[in-house]
Specification:
Layout: E1 3-8, H1 18-26, E2 29-37, H2 38-41, H3 48-67, E3 73-77, H4 79-90, E4 94-98, H5 103-117, E5 122-126, H6 150-159, H7 185-188, H8 202-213, H9 220-223, H10 236-240, H11 246-252, H12 258-279, H13 299-307, H14 313-325, H15 330-343, H16 348-358, H17 364-375, H18 389-396, H19 401-406
Parallel strand pairs: 1-2, 1-4, 2-3, 4-5
Helix pairs in contact: 4-5, 6-12, 12-17, 14-15, 15-17, 16-17
The structure holds flavin-adenine dinucleotide.
Flavin-adenine dinucleotide binds next to helix 10, helix 12, helix 15 and helix 17.
Keywords: Chromophore, FAD, Flavoprotein
Protein name: Deoxyribodipyrimidine photo-lyase
Family: Belongs to the DNA photolyase family.
């Protein structure tokens, strides 16, 4: 009997999953395997919010697999050693895994391939699984190994051929193999999680996707930056953990509508950053473009920024939402990242670390490269742009609804007055005075 292993990583779904489909097609029996990776769980990337989302997504994946005759096999430890051990136990002919982009995942793939080869077991990688396109399929005509500017990338991305979404396997057969029980979040990562965290899993992700595509997407071009409206898809955690397939999502978007096109453009940013990180894994922590910026060291200002007490309500609202939900809308991320790097002149890595601690959707490609974009060390063609928090508040929270939602101390200030509390009778013991001056106060 041919046995294959479908090794799940951040593709936690049964529908449109090239890894599961290929393993099922090849094997008479399949081991759907997930390894709780000690290298990740004990490193800087471990975070209670993502642990919470992950455990829910794993539980649901297990239930989905059981519904088709399988179940999720869980192991914990070193990924290469654990996959090799399972491959030995079930005499697997091959292992299927989604291609990923970070330096760590590229090393993991190489090590797995080598180790499995010793027992004549093949490793097959599948592209267009974690992203909607194969990063290597879309290369610039210049011969470079990645696009350094988004607009030409998007032109190519819009025209590229995408595979059709796959269904889920009808029935799975499992060989005899042991598994750990499903973990609780606390087993994976200690520390407080956000009280209003999204619920992980394929069904929650698919429900959100269906609802989004059936109406709200039409207003995306008009409302995506309107902070009070809360009118973005909130699909990012489901995309990050692969509970929703990016290929299926792109197929569901009507590119001939204004909203559909604007939304697809954001999905293309996601692929763009994945391509860049695949080609330049060091950009996760080193400047993509060296601009010899002299960052300032200001621990007090950084604490105020992290705690949402900078004195600028539009910045503080975003930072408080981050802790409460483990998520922020893109516009709020831009404003708070620009405030830290351009107004306070603090190194983008400090901000990126804080986002990694709290964001449920955090991944190296999108988090680090967006931080670099804002800081001016990344792919922004206008690296010196500064987002003035007061101008941003006027444009994107004109009525002050977002600021009042997240800063209860200021909830009594009507309309746009909430954005300049220093002009009101607000006790600095309740809400602080601005920690720095910006133009337009
Ligand atoms: C400083 C900073 C840090 C960020 N960190 C992350 C991160 O760790 N993980 C992450 O997924 N996104 C990150 N983003 C990008 C973006 O802010 C989020 O993807 C988006 O806010 C998620 O909300 P949504 O799903 O409602 O997005 P929508 O506006 O509905 O967009 C749909 C999808 O497009 C993708 N997308 C949107 N904007 C971007 C972008 N600028 N770059 C890449 N992909 C994008 C996301 O997958 C998102 O789910 C960051 C942006 C900034 C400025």
């Amino acid at each position: 009997m041919t046995v294959t292993i479908a090794l799940f990583t951040r593709d936690l779904r049964v529908r449109d999953n090239p890894v599961l489909t290929a393993a099922h097609r090849e094997g008479a029996a399949v081991v759907p395997l997930f390894v709780l990776d000690d290298a990740i769980l004990s490193g800087r990337f471990a975070a209670p919010n993502r642990a919470g989302f992950l455990t829910a997504a794993l539980a649901e994946l297990d239930a989905e697999l059981r519904a088709i005759g399988g179940r999720l096999v869980l192991r914990r430890g070193d990924v290469v050693a654990e996959v090799d051990r399972v491959a030995g136990q079930v005499h697997a002919r091959s292992v299927h895994i989604a291609a990923d982009v970070s330096g760590y995942s590229q090393r993991r793939e190489r090590a797995l391939r080598e180790r499995l080869a010793r027992r004549n077991c093949l490793l097959h990688t599948h592209t267009a699984s974690i992203t909607s396109t194969d990063p290597e399929a879309l290369m610039p005509a210049t011969g470079r190994d990645h696009f350094a500017v988004f607009t030409p990338y998007f032109r190519r991305w819009s025209m590229t051929h995408r595979r059709k979404p796959l269904g889920k396997p009808r029935e799975l057969r499992l060989p005899r193999v042991e598994s750990l029980p499903l973990p609780d979040a606390d087993d994976l990562c200690a520390g407080p999680a956000s009280p209003r965290l999204a619920v992980g899993g394929e069904s929650a992700g698919r429900k959100l996707m269906r609802e989004w595509l059936s109406g709200p997407i039409e207003d995306y071009a008009r409302l995506s930056d309107d902070l009070g409206a809360d009118a973005t898809s909130r699909l990012s955690p489901y995309l990050h953990f692969g509970c929703v397939s990016p290929v299926e999502l792109v197929h569901g978007v009507n590119l001939s509508t204004e909203g559909g096109l604007a939304f697809a453009r954001q999905l293309a940013w996601r692929d763009f950053h994945h391509q860049l990180l695949a080609a330049r894994p060091a950009a996760a922590w080193s400047d993509y473009r060296d601009r010899s910026i002299r960052w300032s060291d200001d621990p007090q200002a950084v604490d105020a920024w992290r705690d949402g007490r900078t004195g600028y309500p539009i910045v503080d609202a975003g930072m408080r939402q981050l802790r409460a939900e483990g998520w922020m809308p893109g516009r709020a991320r831009l404003i708070s990242a620009s405030f830290l790097t351009k107004s306070l002149r603090v190194d983008w890595r400090v901000g990126a670390e804080h986002f990694l601690r709290w964001l449920v959707d955090a991944d190296l490609a999108n988090n680090q490269l967006n931080w670099q974009w804002v800081a001016g060390t990344g792919t922004d063609t206008r690296p010196n742009r500064v987002l003035n928090p007061l101008r941003q508040a006027e444009r994107y929270d004109a009525e002050g609804a977002y600021a009042r939602r997240w800063i209860p101390e200021l909830a009594h200030l009507p309309g746009a007055r909430v954005h300049r509390p220093w002009r009101e009778q607000v006790d600095p013991a309740d809400y602080p005075a601005p920690i720095i001056d910006v133009v337009g106060m």
